[in-house]
Specification:
Strands 1-5-2-3-4 form a five-stranded antiparallel sheet, with helices on one face. The protein is built from two helices and five strands; from the N terminus they run ααβββββ. The protein has helices spanning 16-24, 43-52; strands at residues 56-62, 74-80, 87-95, 98-103, 118-124. By secondary structure, the chain is α+β, with helices and mostly antiparallel strands. It is globular, with a radius of gyration of 13 Å.
Length: 126
Amino acid sequence: MRRQRQTTFGFPKGNCFAACIASLLDLDVQNVPNFCLDENPNWFTEADRFVANHGFRLLQITGATGITALDGTLFIASGKSPRGDFNHSVITRVEGEQFVVEMDPHPSDDGLDGPFTIMTMLVRAS
């Protein structure tokens, strides 16, 4: 994983999700579209199509309470931003029964304000 910082901030311009995708795919953030820009209603389809070009698919689980995964698994956790009434995305690692923020693309490194509500995993496409 090559850590990338987001380059645009706040709702509806922030590219934290794109920075997470870039980090997990070892890409530069400027080479990943800002799928969520201006509340794009097709953001998930566009993001899934983008990662498919890199050999992956996106698996998204909403209301992810009670979900566990193998130790060391990395995923994108999204939930309330500590900077306002909008969502933020960070890369999270499973450590036992805990979820640990591995990388926050925002320079504050504040993570999320409370538990994540959406879990997005990149799974290898065959």
